[in-house]
């Protein structure tokens, strides 16, 4: 990248050299449409279903939702980006498109490496003890067994599930929702991700854990990753992200420094 | 943020070129077959750990725990023996019906439960798939391994029954090992196939029990295979002869039992069919599953 700078700026060599920023996620006019089964309603009788099978037409109770309608932005290495917007504005859908879990209808999403999406409903094996889930989760992220053994105590310690006695050896179905969310975040945060997508995952923990996880997010970022954070808790966006994208009805309403965007967003939601 | 436009000479580029210049990949693209296989190999520890975890979890709520691994096949065999051996008198003209029945039952059950769980491999693990990124073939492969471990429990029961019913220990017993390994490869391929089918067509779960039951009746599990040759027209018997499940069951019966009725007279031919099925299904299932890799977890 230094070569490139030297080539393009050969006239202005006196300018201080600023490192070129490296993009990790490029979203180019992305449209995401997903199909939902409405269930129950409509002509769902056996006869109608049979007729659909014979005529090979698609079920009428499937509706298309155009959740993201042409979003364009570039995220760089070392950035933490907050995604805010009212319910149903397409934040989670956009994250899932970046993670490659939803196909884009039009446009494109380019990413460095494989982004990891960390959501509240990321389920592990509920019948197994927390410890065992940590091992499984780490192996599923591609760690070697030796590495997992080394990280295991750290992850349990970070999650804080052992603060009220030895919960790590109890099945995860006995955990409170906050505890399992904490454990899931701790597992995902144990690995250095190129791009980490966090969907409301920090909201369930208590205040103490939130502080710890915010520190961890900052650390992940410093190690040259990019972090996306979807949250309705503006304070946690303010504390972790310096850039914020505000989505409204599937479109970018504002993209800029967190303080400015949050101010406009708060004015918008209060004015309603 | 104002100085960033100055600092970034690439910002003037259209997004697609910017992405290309920094070597970014399109999100959710399918890896090549070679790199996919490499990834899968690196995840081998995850596959075995997941299989063991599933096995442990399946008994975690039962008081007797892992003892069920042996109790379930035993009870199964007892029920079928009661109906087909004692009530329907299928054992009339056979030397050792109870061993014949259990061999068929356990071998068939290995494939049956692999397929049943396989249809749920993707659709039942959406949380895991959406949260973590790993080659998805890990899931159907882990199911095959879990079922293989269950089969080992069943095989101990089977060998005990075979010995208790007075069969001698012969060198032929060694044939059981390659036969089961071939069946395991066949199962892995089949499990991957139904995993992809079940990921899209959720109705498959409702249809599968009927398909599997038909398959069981066509594999000569519960009655003498001689009934096929006696009652079916020639062409239908020929089809049944190439039924992979019948072939794997016959190999197990030949290995363990003396004077057992067989549909396939030629042992080398039976082996050829068994190898053929395991290669075709194993490779075919793997390719078919890989081709859908980028779609799992969507929707």
Report on this structure.
- The complex is a heterodimer of chains A (272) and B (299).
- Chain A is an alpha/beta fold and 272 residues long.
- Chain A is built from 9 helices and 9 strands.
- In chain A, the strands form 2 sheets. Chain A has a 6-stranded mixed β-sheet with strand order 5-6-7-3-8-9, with helices on both faces. In chain A, strands 2-1-4 form a 3-stranded antiparallel β-sheet, with helices on one face.
- In chain A, helix 4 crosses helix 5 (145-159), helix 4 packs parallel to helix 6 and helix 5 (145-159) crosses helix 6 (177-189).
- Chain B is an all-alpha fold and 299 residues long.
- Chain B has helices at 4-7, 15-21, 33-42, 44-58, 68-87, 97-118, 126-131, 138-164, 176-200, 204-217, 226-231, 234-241, 244-256, 267-291; one strand at residues 25-26.
- The longest helix of chain B is centred in the middle third of the chain and has 27 residues, at 138-164.
- The radius of gyration of chain B is 24 Å and the shape is elongated.
- Chains A and B meet through helix 1, strand 1, helix 3, strand 4 and strand 5 of A and helix 1, helix 2, strand 1, helix 4 and helix 7 of B.
């Amino acid at each position: 990248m230094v070569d490139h700078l030297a080539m393009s700026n050969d006239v202005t060599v006196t300018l201080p050299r600023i490192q070129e920023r490296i993009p990790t996620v490029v979203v180019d006019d992305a449209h995401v449409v997903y199909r939902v089964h409405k269930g129950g309603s409509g002509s769902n009788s056996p006869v109608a279903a049979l007729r659909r099978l014979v005529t090979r037409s698609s079920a009428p109770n499937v509706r298309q939702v155009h959740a993201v309608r042409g979003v364009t932005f570039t995220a760089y290495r070392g950035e933490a980006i907050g995604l805010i917007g009212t319910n149903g504005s397409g934040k989670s859908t956009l994250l899932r498109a970046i993670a490659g879990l939803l196909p884009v209808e039009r446009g494109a999403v380019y990413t460095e490496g494989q982004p990891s999406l960390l959501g509240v409903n990321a389920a592990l094996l509920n019948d197994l003890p927390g410890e065992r889930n940590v091992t499984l989760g780490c192996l599923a992220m591609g760690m070697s067994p030796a590495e997992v053994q080394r990280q295991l105590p750290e992850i349990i310690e970070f999650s804080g599930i052992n603060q009220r006695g030895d919960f790590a050896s109890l099945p995860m179905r006995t955990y409170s929702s906050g505890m399992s969310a904490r454990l899931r975040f701790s597992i995902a945060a144990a690995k250095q991700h190129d791009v980490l997508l966090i969907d409301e995952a920090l909201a369930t923990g208590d205040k103490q854990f939130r502080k710890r996880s915010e520190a961890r997010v900052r650390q992940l970022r410093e190690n040259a990753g990019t972090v996306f954070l979807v949250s309705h808790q503006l304070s946690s966006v303010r504390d972790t992200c310096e850039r914020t994208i505000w989505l409204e009805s599937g479109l970018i309403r504002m993209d800029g420094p967190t303080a400015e965007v949050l101010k406009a967003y708060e004015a918008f939601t209060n004015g309603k | 943020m104002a100085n960033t436009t100055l600092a970034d000479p690439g910002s003037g580029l259209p997004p697609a070129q910017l992405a290309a210049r920094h070597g970014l990949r399109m999100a959710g693209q399918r890896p090549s077959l070679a790199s996919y296989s490499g990834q899968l190999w690196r995840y081998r520890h995850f596959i075995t750990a997941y299989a063991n975890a599933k096995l442990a979890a399946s008994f975690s709520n039962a008081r007797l725990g892992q003892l069920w691994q042996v109790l379930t096949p035993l009870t199964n065999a007892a029920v079928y023996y009661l109906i087909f051996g004692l009530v329907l008198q299928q054992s009339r003209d056979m030397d050792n019906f109870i061993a014949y029945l259990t061999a068929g039952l356990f071998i068939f059950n290995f494939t049956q439960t692999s397929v049943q769980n396989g249809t749920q491999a993707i659709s039942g693990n959406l949380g895991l798939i959406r949260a973590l990124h790993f080659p998805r073939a890990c899931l159907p492969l882990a199911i095959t391994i879990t079922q293989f471990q269950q089969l080992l429990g069943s095989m101990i029961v089977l060998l005990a029954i075979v010995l208790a019913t007075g069969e001698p220990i012969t060198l032929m017993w060694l044939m059981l090992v390659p036969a089961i390994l071939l069946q395991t490869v066949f199962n892995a391929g089949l499990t991957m196939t139904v995993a992809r089918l079940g990921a899209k067509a959720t109705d498959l779960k409702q249809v599968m029990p009927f398909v599997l039951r038909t398959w069981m009746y066509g594999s000569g599990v519960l009655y003498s295979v001689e009934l096929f040759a006696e009652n079916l027209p020639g062409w239908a018997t020929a089809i049944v002869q190439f039924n992979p499940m019948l072939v794997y069951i016959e190999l197990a019966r030949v290995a363990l039992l003396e004077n057992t009725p067989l549909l396939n007279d030629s042992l080398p031919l039976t082996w050829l069919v068994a190898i053929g099925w395991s290669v075709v299904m194993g490779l075919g299932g793997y390719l078919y599953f890989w081709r859908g890799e980028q779609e799992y977890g969507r929707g």
